[in-house]
Each structure stands twice: as structure tokens, then as C-alpha cells.
Amino acid sequence: DAGQRQWGAAQCGSCGMLYAPGSAEDRLQHLRHHRRLRRRLRCPGWKRERVVAEFWDGKIVLILPGDPKYALRKAEEVRELVDSELGFQQGALRGAENSRDYRSYLFVSAGSSVLGCLVAEAVSQAFRVLPEPGWAPLP
Fold first, then answer.
1. What tens digit of pLDDT does each residue of 103-112 get?
2. Which residue numbers delimit the N-acetyltransferase ESCO zinc-finger domain (predicted)?
3. What separation in angstroms does the CA of 16 have from each of 23, 37, 70, 97, 135?
């Protein structure tokens, strides 16, 4: 490497972004991305938060459709981030959220960061999925 330790690409262990540490522009873009990600995953808590369970390393907070806008906004921010990381279409639930009963469960660490997210919908009717012909069941 001829003394150039920051040559090539590196991946941030915290946010996962791939960038070139030797490039000032890349470092700046990484810093912006990192700050934006950390801000979206920050959850300092609210006066009337609905704590479902508490653990030594954090708590699970439930956010319902009738909760205050700041709680719904935080749940939406986290869901959008998770959707983009998983490759889901942006806004897939948008518009339908007011008519359906979505519940958001956020695992918030002791350091006030969101580490987990579950979005659940009550289902009143379901259809059995039939196996494909010729497929063998798993052992």
C-alpha cells in the first residue's frame, strides 16, 4: 500500500455504508449519511409512551394509530428506513394506514436507539395456501 492506509473502499461497522476513506468527498458523504441514520434511529422517549416490556438492555414500545403525531412520525421514519434496507417499495403502507389497524413495536435500547421494529396488522380473514403439486414437505 506504499504507506497509503486509506486506499480503496471501506465499510462502516456502524451504518454499513461503503465509502473511500481516502477521498474527502466520500468521507463527507459518509458523515452525512451516518448522522442522518443515527437521527432517524434516535428515540429519546415520550411522557406517555406505551411500554410493553422492559429488559436489562432496553424496552419495547407500542405505537398505535391513535397515538400522538410525534410517535406516529417516529414509527413511520423507522418503518421507511427498514423498508429501504430490505428493498421494499417505499410507501407501500401509505394511504392504507388510516383505514387499517397497524401497530408498531419498537425495541429501544438503554442508549435511546431503535434496534428493532415490528409492524403488525390485525387480520380478520385469511386464505389457506395450498402446496404446489410435486413439492415434498420438509422433514
1. 999 999 888 8
2. 1-36
3. 17, 10, 27, 30, 38
pLDDT value of position 99: 42
φ/ψ (deg, to 5) at 136:
-90, 140
80-94 confidence digits (pLDDT tens):
888 877 888 766 555
Biggest alpha carbon distance in the chain? 65
What residue spans define the domains of the chain?
7-37, 41-121
Bridge-partner residues for 119, per DSSP? 104
User: What is the CA 134 to chain-centroid distance, rounded?
Assistant: 38
> Is residue 74 pLDDT above 80, yes or no?
yes
